[in-house]
Every structure is written in structure tokens, then in C-alpha cells.
Design a protein that fits this description.
Strand 2, helix 1 (27-40) and strand 3 form a beta-alpha-beta unit. The protein has eight helices and 16 strands. The chain is globular and about 50 Å long. The chain has one domain (4-292): 4-Layer Sandwich (Double-stranded beta-helix), CATH 3.60.130.10. By secondary structure, the protein is α+β, with helices and mostly antiparallel strands.
């Protein structure tokens, strides 16, 4: 399959033209997509809306999929296949969620800058978000480049954070918005996870920050000091020069490398408009040097 790479920025975000995610791809095409992600971190593939099975088949070319899709599990009915994550404002009957619905309140956390699954033992590598329906206004997705954000830090800050280990938890990000409606079973399923704040990417060999709103502590640091440093770095990384904003069309597949980006959903009128997205999440090969908090 012959594809064309159309850069959107200098080395951040690119469009791949000529790739049909609804058809099988060969190894050479897969390798070209991986190389594009290594360089640009974010890839846009425009096309037609495809079935859930086709989206799953496409994602499996790049590695194993997340086995734990969905944090809320108590009394929750699935609307999409178990291999996918439902990123929508609809229930299983395709009706708009009530604004007080537990699922909708949890999903508001997606509007915080975050990294998918940094709070899991095995973290996400690629997120592949496919648009089934989009809003006529607003509802964009923004992605920021943590590689460029790291490069722009001064030498003093780079030395300061070189060996820092942060603690990630889904309950940290949701608590920011006041959402703490989790059952004991849900909390036990996802204990806090430790991850280095700075890492070297295996493909490009570039250094990058690894941040998320899920990060709420730093090993060996008082909580207040840790959270101030994390906030400072996140504000630095979210500056406009590091951000790509994606304006959605039906059929789009937006792919980003969670190892070197943060992303967030932008708000829209949820009481009026339907927004239907399904995410396939390709996981890292193993847990690496991550540790579960005791």
C-alpha cells in the first residue's frame, strides 16, 4: 500500500494520505506508520467510518490491545465491543447521557490534560480514536508534544527532574473535579502506579517528559511540593507552541503516542449534540520499570 506523509508541524503531527483503515495492511505499511509516529507522535488518517471489528483489526497490527477497557465497572452496561473504549456521551440505547449520569461525570476528566492508562501496570503505547459522529461545533481534541516541552526546559530544570519518579492514579485526576464515586471493587482494580517523570523513547531515542493529570505525587517529596512541580511542568508543556488541535470529521482516525504526549477533549454542548468516538488502545510490550505502590 502506497501512502503519503503530509507533515502538519515541523516534527509534531502529520496526516497519512492513502491509508484505508478498513482494509488489511502489509508489514511495510505498518512499519511506515510506526516510523511516522516515532517522528511526529500524532497521526491523522481521514477516511470513512469503519466497523468496530475493522478498527480492532487495524489496531492489532501494532500490538496487543488493552485488556481493561473502562474504569467504571459496577452496574455499567457496555455500548461498544470489549476491546474498545467508549468515548461518547451516549448510553447503551444510543440516548444522550443525563448530565448527572455517573458515566458522564467520570468522562469529564477527559477534559484534563492526561495520558491514557498511565495509571495501569502496563501503560498505553498508541491510542487510536475513531469518529462515528461529531459535533457541528467545538468538541476538538488537543494533543501536546512532551518531547519538545522537555527540550525547551533549561538545564537546571532538566537536572532537577532527571531521576524523579511520579505516582499515577485514575482517582487523582477524577478527584481534581470532585468525582470520587468509585466502589471498593473499582478502587482495588487500579492501585497507584510509579513511573519515571523523564524517559527515553525506544524509537526516536529522544528524551521526553511523561506527565498526566493522573500524577499526584513524587516519591520522597512532600505532597504539596510534588504537585506544584507537576503542575508547573504540565503548564509548560501545554503552551500553544507545543499543541496540535484536531477538528473532527466523521471517519477520522486520530492516533497518538502516549509515551510522549498528553491530550484532552474540549467541551461541547452535551445536552444538545451527540459525539460518538471509539478508542482502540495498543499497549506497551511490558510493564518496564513501573512499580505498584504498596
Amino acid at each position: 500500500m502506497s501512502v503519503v506523509i503530509n507533515p502538519i508541524g515541523v516534527d509534531f503531527a502529520a496526516e497519512i494520505i492513502g491509508l484505508d483503515i478498513g482494509s488489511p495492511i502489509d508489514d511495510a505499511t505498518r512499519d511506515e506508520v510506526v516510523a511516522t509516529l516515532d517522528k511526529y507522535a500524532v497521526v491523522v488518517i481521514r477516511g470513512e467510518r469503519v466497523s468496530e471489528q475493522a478498527q480492532i483489526d487495524f489496531a492489532l497490527n501494532f500490538g496487543p490491545l488493552d485488556a481493561i477497557n473502562g474504569v467504571l465497572t459496577t452496574d455499567i452496561k457496555r455500548r461498544v465491543r470489549a476491546e474498545l473504549t467508549d468515548i461518547s456521551n451516549m448510553d447503551e440505547d444510543h440516548a444522550l447521557l443525563d448530565l448527572s449520569d455517573r458515566r458522564r461525570l467520570f468522562n469529564l476528566g477527559n477534559q484534563l490534560w492526561h495520558t491514557d492508562s498511565s495509571f495501569k501496570r502496563v501503560a498505553a503505547m498508541y491510542s487510536m480514536l475513531h469518529a462515528h459522529s461529531v459535533t457541528p461545533e467545538r468538541g476538538e481534541t488537543q494533543v501536546c508534544d512532551l518531547r519538545a516541552a522537555y527540550d525547551s526546559l533549561d538545564d537546571e530544570m532538566k537536572a532537577r527532574i532527571e531521576d524523579i519518579v511520579a505516582v499515577h492514579s485514575i482517582y487523582t485526576s477524577r478527584a481534581i473535579l470532585g468525582f470520587e464515586d468509585f466502589t471498593d471493587e473499582e478502587r482495588r482494580a487500579l492501585p497507584p502506579i510509579r513511573r519515571p517523570l523523564v524517559r527515553v523513547l525506544p524509537g526516536s531515542k529522544r528524551k521526553t517528559l511523561f506527565l498526566a493529570s493522573h500524577a499526584g505525587g513524587i516519591l520522597g517529596r512532600p505532597t504539596a511540593e510534588a504537585r506544584l512541580l507537576i503542575r508547573e511542568l504540565m503548564e509548560h508543556a501545554a503552551q500553544p507552541q507545543f499543541v496540535y488541535t484536531h477538528n473532527w470529521q466523521v471517519g477520522d482516525l486520530l492516533v497518538w503516542d502516549n509515551r510522549c504526549t498528553m491530550h484532552r477533549a474540549r467541551p461541547f454542548d452535551e445536552a444538545k449534540y451527540e459525539r460518538d468516538m471509539r478508542r482502540a488502545t495498543v499497549m506497551e510490550a511490558d510493564a518496564g520499570d513501573v512499580h505498584i505502590e504498596p
